[in-house]
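Dear colleagues,

As part of the handover before I leave the project, I'm documenting each prediction I ran so the next person doesn't have to rerun anything. This entry is a single chain, and its sequence is reproduced below.
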Amino acid sequence: MTLQQLKYVIKIVEYGSITEAAKRLYITQPSLSSAVKELEKELGIEIFSRSSRGVSLTVDGAEFLSYARQVVEQEELLERRYTGKKPSRRLCAISTQHYAFSVNAFVELVKECSADEYEFTLRETRTYDIIQDVKNMRSEIGILYLNHFNEKVITKLLREDRLEFHPLFEASPHVFVSWTNPLSTKEFVTLKDLEEYPCLSFEQGEFNSFYFSEEILSTVYHKKSIHVSDRATLFNLLIGLNGYTICTGVLSSDLNGVDIVSIPLAVSSDERMRIGWIVNSKAVLSSAAESYIGHLKKLIRKYGFTIIE
């Protein structure tokens, strides 16, 4: 086993495929595949499962990756200490549902970075993809929510994929609307109040399911529904069409301006969202990922929520 082989495995995970990793490493795909197979043979484990859709980490592979990252980091520390070599690019990848506080925390993470070079990734994406990203360690952390409706299904998926859910805070349902919406001055709104307005939600692609919905009360029928794929479009439609979306109520004026307002939604008291982060149970988080979690907690407290320890 060589350091180069460890670095190869890390790069394959980073780029999501052997073919792309080979391009970035300036070696041939057969050479890279052969190096990984030799490593698997030597260790007596399968690091990657291979299919027509590409490669993904096995359970053994996820555990091996954590150790490989630690070894490579220690090697870099030694080189910097004794040869004066400058540190490598700082890396961190996060996958999240469409939450402003996730972006805010990411902004703070990048601002504090003192490295000369870094490569951070923030993916605002679908629920299923968040789970897959963390399962395959394409992202170190995923941000999503659980509630009494989706918890059994999502928890089962996490357990099967050997992922852990760490709660951050609980929130009651709110709606985001434009400040020009007739409902914007109300102390709270009901589902009946919202009937004539377009309901905006994030589409979930081929894995569309009530259980993967980012919006609580996903089984409620809406006369007018619009599905979007990104937060900017959703906010534009909130303003342009007087639409609404059901959410946590956490709104950042720093990133979203003052055109959107948050209003409590009057529903049953058991309709609560427990927002948290998921991680591969075999993973050892990088210092950047740990710092990101710290920024999340700081921002959530700033918004007036109690952190679940």
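The mean pLDDT is 88. The first strand starts at residue 48 and ends at 51.

All the best with the project,
I.
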